[in-house]
Write a structure and sequence with these properties.
- By secondary structure, the chain is an alpha+beta fold.
- The chain has twelve helices and nine strands.
- A seven-stranded antiparallel β-sheet has the order 6-5-4-3-2-1-9, sandwiched between helices.
- Helix 6 packs across helix 9.
- The longest helix is centred in the middle third of the chain and has 29 residues, at 261-289.
- The two termini are 19 Å apart.
């Protein structure tokens, strides 16, 4: 008997005669109209971290300080509980402030689970993306000029770049890889590749600075192509396993001197996970708005849930062939954000030897966005998670899809979630339940 079956008292895979299940997955090539009456993106009120901070600033409860280096940025990061060690640097011209971005003036990004902030040297505004529990990512700008009452401006024009195939057809955020020229201009317009934990290192971080140890597993970071005739030929000599960025740019006006590889990997995972939760929620809201959930609508939700659970359990994560090591404090500070179970384990604990995390289940399960998914989605996610973690698969193909998830992995994730995740269904605690 496997360890997972033993811990739950001999749970078995349930087979229902005559039942078939078509694993269609999410339709990632379709879009959900933001102005759909079930969504009303940009019109419905939002309650993300930036909207809340804006209200506090308006009421005089929070005041941002203005620093000689970074202006409002250091104070803003502190108020939003975003660590400076999350800094990653992108030098490709992939922002609406692109004229001011180049390899010698990279854009700095800082993030936590709820907010990402972009800062451009001599830019006009800070670029802000905040995760609303229901509506998904909302975009803002924040004037960098010193003012008596600074404010955030909500923007919908960002959807020109932030809604498309790379964001699963909903307004979202992404980490993309490009072939940058010597000044950071992408060689192929509209051909940016979204990257996450499923992407080979060889295709990651084109147009980004990367500091950290990655062994012989080469990436595209820190490199440009000077030959316009052969834009895919990046000059990669001296671009791997960098502990510092040396003289590539003047780091005086940046809050940190690193673009940490582990922070980059974390941001990559988080972006797709965030977009998957939003897309699953939007699809369900559109179907439920029709009044009665049709068989086709239910099947669409099931497909979304399958895709979401497969990603959140890292079933399709590519193996690390070389250990990865960051050079900032991010690898230490990120796990401290917990929560931890009775044995001291956390879904934020890194592995970085053969895979990203020690316990393969996304920490975004603790997010407000996860809890705010429509009940019909959240209930099915919980059921699917419970079955997979207990080794209850639909068929051999389903079992193969989660082949990387060992008995020990499933048991550990179950125990951690039982100790740390509020609102689990009763059958999780009882240890019984079926497909």
């Amino acid at each position: 008997m496997s360890a997972r079956k033993a811990i739950w008292g001999g749970l078995s895979v349930l087979a229902i005669a005559g039942m078939t299940h078509l694993l269609t997955g999410m339709d990632e090539r379709s879009w959900v109209p933001p102005d759909d009456p079930a969504i009303q993106y940009g019109d419905a009120p939002v309650d993300d971290a930036i909207a809340r901070l804006g209200r506090q600033m308006e009421a005089g409860k929070v005041k941002l300080d203005y620093a000689p280096v970074g202006g409002y940025l250091p104070s803003l990061l502190k108020v939003l509980e975003i660590n400076v060690d999350s800094q990653v640097l992108v030098f490709s011209k992939t922002s609406f402030q692109n004229p001011k971005i180049a390899p010698w003036t990279p854009r700095a990004l800082y993030f936590n689970d709820k907010v990402a902030i972009g800062s451009v040297q001599n830019g006009d505004v800070l670029e802000v993306a905040a995760l609303d529990p229901k509506q998904g990512v909302t975009f803002y700008s924040f004037d960098v000029k010193r003012r008596a009452k600074p404010t955030f401006d909500q923007r919908t024009d960002c959807l020109q770049c932030h809604q498309g195939l790379v964001t699963l057809g909903i307004p979202g955020i992404m980490v993309t890889s490009v072939y940058p020229s010597g000044d950071g201009t992408p060689a192929f317009r509209g051909a940016a590749q979204a990257t996450d934990h499923r992407t080979p290192f060889a295709d990651r971080w084109g147009g980004w600075y990367v500091t950290g140890i990655n062994g012989a597993d080469r990436h595209m970071g820190n490199a440009v192509a000077h030959d316009s005739v052969h834009p895919r030929n990046l000059e990669q000599a001296g671009t791997q396993n960098l502990l510092t960025l040396g003289r590539r740019f003047d780091s005086t006006n940046y809050l940190a001197k690193t673009s940490d590889i582990v922070a980059l990997m974390t941001l990559e995972h988080q972006t797709r996970m965030t977009n998957l939760m939003t897309r699953a929620g939007w699809d369900a809201r559109v179907e439920l708005y029709k009044g009665v959930l049709s068989p086709e609508g239910s099947a669409k939700i099931d497909g979304d849930v399958d895709t979401l659970v497969q990603y959140m359990l890292f079933a399709d994560e590519l193996k690390l062939y070389e250990p990865v090591q960051g050079v900032s404090t991010f690898t230490k500070t990120f796990p401290l954000r917990g929560p931890r179970d009775q044995q001291g384990r956390s879904l934020r604990d890194f592995d970085l030897q053969t895979r990203m995390f020690k316990y393969p289940c996304s920490y975004m399960i603790y997010s407000e966005a996860f809890d705010a998914m429509p009940t019909v989605v959240r209930d099915r996610v919980y059921r699917r998670l419970f079955n997979v973690l207990n080794g209850q698969f639909r068929d051999d193909d389903d079992k193969k899809a989660f082949a990387k998830l060992s008995d020990g992995d499933g048991r550990a994730v179950l125990e951690i979630l039982l100790d740390t995740k509020p609102g689990l269904p009763a059958y999780w605690k009882a240890g019984t339940g079926g497909l």
